[in-house]
Structure formats: C-alpha cells, structure tokens
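Homework help thread (please don't just give me the answer)

Our assignment gives two proteins as sequence + structure token strings and asks us to describe the second one. The first is just a warm-up. Here they are:
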Amino acid sequence: MIIDASTAHRVGVDGWVYGFPELNDQQKFLVSNSKRIANPGCYPTGMIALCRPLVDAGILPENTGLVVHAVSGFSGGGKALMAIHHAGEAEPWGAYGFNLQHKHLPEMAEYSKVGRKPLFCPAVGSFEQGMVVSVPLHYDQLHEKGRSGAAIHGAIEERYKDSRFVSVRPLNETSDLERGAFLRPDSLNDTNDLELSVYANDDDGMAWLVARLDNLGKGASGAAVQNLNLALGLDEDAGL
C-alpha cells in the first residue's frame, strides 16, 4: 500500500483514491479498499470541506468564481522556510502565489466539485503550526434556496454530523474568539481535527466560511495516519 503526500496522484490519475474520507458518503469506503491513496493538501482540505457540501446540496453552483484566502504556519514551507523563521529573518506575515498558478488549484477545483479554479490568496504567518482557510460568499453567487446563513450552515452541518474528526461550530459563533474578536490559527495544533465555521449577514446577503486545522495534522501527517488506519481496517482514530 502507498500513501502519497505529493501532488502527483491527486487529480486525474487512474487507480488512486483521494484521501479525504469525509468528502462524501462513499469516500471512506473507497479509501478503506484502496492500495493507492493520494493524501490531500492542507489548503485544499479546508476549502473542499467548506464548499463540497454546498455543491452537493444544490446551494453553490458549479463553475462559480470563488476567492479563497488562507494563512498557514511556516512549517508548511519545509525545512528551508522553517530555518529562516527560526533565525528571526522572516517577514511577520507574507502573502505569496502571485503567479496565480498554485499547485493546489487543480485539487480545489476537482474535489470541491465547483469545477473551476478559485482565485487563491495564500499567506504564511510568523507561527509554526496551524492554518485558517476562508471562503467569502455573496448570496447572489448561490442558488436561491441557499441564500441564508441557516441554509449554508445546515448543509455543512448535515454533511459532517457523523464525522469523527470534522466538527461544525454553531452559526455565527463568536463567544470563544480571542478577546471576543480573533480566530486563532493554532488552536487545533497536534490534532487531526478540522473545525468549520459559518459567519453570515443575511441583511447584506453575505457569508464568510472558515476552516481551521493543523497544517501538520489533518493537513498532512494526521490525514495520512487516518487513511492508513482505514486501509488497514483499524479504528479510524488509532494513534490519533
């Protein structure tokens, strides 16, 4: 059995299964019965988790032009970037990907089921682990039945109601934000958890979808262990 953490087998390669078990009702079965598993990217894990339920529910139209903002801990850049940050030589926050050809774009388009590459705006912060992925929406981008915070939140909550690792916070939940305002990117560090939030303003017709995860957990090695457990017939959370 092979679990590939690269981008080589994630999109358009026969014989490989995408290793996001929560993708739909069939994906866990497919992972469990595969010998070739393509581990998802960290950024796509957040974006896909937020958007795929909305497409499946007939809320988010296919081919919608989305914008995805994300910030990751610097460990996502590998040893070279980690060394720069540990030496105190890095900028406090740095956006990148200005060629608009980020390696995760095909994966986002394919498995979100939107079918169109989003405008992706990634950044690295001066913290080692953790990640926040955001998808802002105007209601006029959505089918009419999905034009409310309750409808958006309900579709996402329904998808993950039986999930071991993916949780959905209450609609417009702000009581646990830092100083009542700030969503920390590192609150799920050293876990395989993925936490989804929906913030909505029905009066102005807009929503802000947010995913929080450990880029080294559910965004990398944690997801690999989860997939390994499923493929070997072990408890999904063994070792996690």
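The one we have to describe:
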Amino acid sequence: MTTQQPDTEELLCQAEHGYPGAREGLLARHRDRLRKMVAWRLDRRLAARVDPSDVVQEVFLEASRKMDRYLRERPLPFFPWLRALAAEQLVALHRRHVRTQGRSVLREEPGILNLPDESAAELAVRLVTSSTSPTKRAIRQELCERVRKALGQLRDRDREVLVLRNLEQLSVADTAEVLGISTSAVKVRHMRALERLHALLVEKDEEDLP
C-alpha cells in the first residue's frame, strides 16, 4: 500500500509552520513540471551551453532565498510563482548570451521569448487529433505542419494562451494568474485563439483551391 504524498497546499501549510523538509518537498513536487516549461521556452541557440535542469536549479536557489516573503504574502499560487522566476531567468540568459548589442530583448521577444521551432511543432501536434493508420498518420503530419505555420501568423496574445493551455498544460486558474486576467477571460481568449487558428487554416485551404 503506497502512502499518499502531500499536495502543494498541504506542503505550503507545513512550510509556514516550519516543518522539516516541507520547503524542499514543495520544490521537488514541481521540478519536472518546471523543467518542461523551461525546455519548451529555452532559445535553441543556447542549447549547447545551457541545460534546462541547470536553469531549474538556479530558479530553486532563487525561490529558496525568496521563500519567507512568498509564504508571508502568497502573491501567486505556488507554481505560477515558480514559473515567473523561471521566466525571469530565461530572459536574463537571453540578454546575456543571445541579444545583439543595443537591442532590448523585451522589445524583440514577445511574451517570455519566441517559441523555438521544436516547441511550436509539438504544440501543433497537440492541437491535431491523433490518428493510427498509415494514411491518417501522413495526413496528420501534413496538418501538423500547416498548423505550425498558422501558429506563426497568430497574434502574440493568441499564440501565448495556446502555449500555456495546450503545450505547458496549465490549468485555467494558473493561466489566469500568468496572464493577469480572470478565468472567464482565459476561457474566452483560448476559444477565440482556436477559432482564429482554424480560420487561418480554412483561408489557406481556399487559397490552394484551383
């Protein structure tokens, strides 16, 4: 019989009361999830020099330094807070290693950073219904490529909500915290982003007609 692990809220309560290991348990609980977010967002020009696990470790060191204040104020739910620290770390890495002299990374890179091609391709896959037969797989592969190209034509705010919900797989509540909007606004924005993506695909189909 396995022992059920404490959830995030329980660990936060334990950390507030100084229970041994609670803070380490909080970070460990979200390590894999945060590493995936960093890997999705990490500029591929940094891939040879920066490992997502190293970025996560830096984020955890920063989180440990700021944990007392976080526990007092709780400005965000725990994972969106960790994710915000990771976003700051990614922007700092991009500033240090990638941006050209005299250009602002915040101006040239919408959102956190532009989504790498591999991550955009994975998002396209997740937006397309899976198929198993060889013929359907070929059709699906072609559709995924069309979706990937259409994603590049979306407005930043549309693409970002699709990334958060469909690639990072954040909950509606966590997405609302990241974007600074209400949960109802997240649902509307996500629905409209999907509609605009579909419209782009239909427009492309019509352009291809003889």
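TA reply:
I won't write it for you, but here's a hint about the kind of observation we're looking for: Confidence is low (pLDDT under 50) at residues 101-111.
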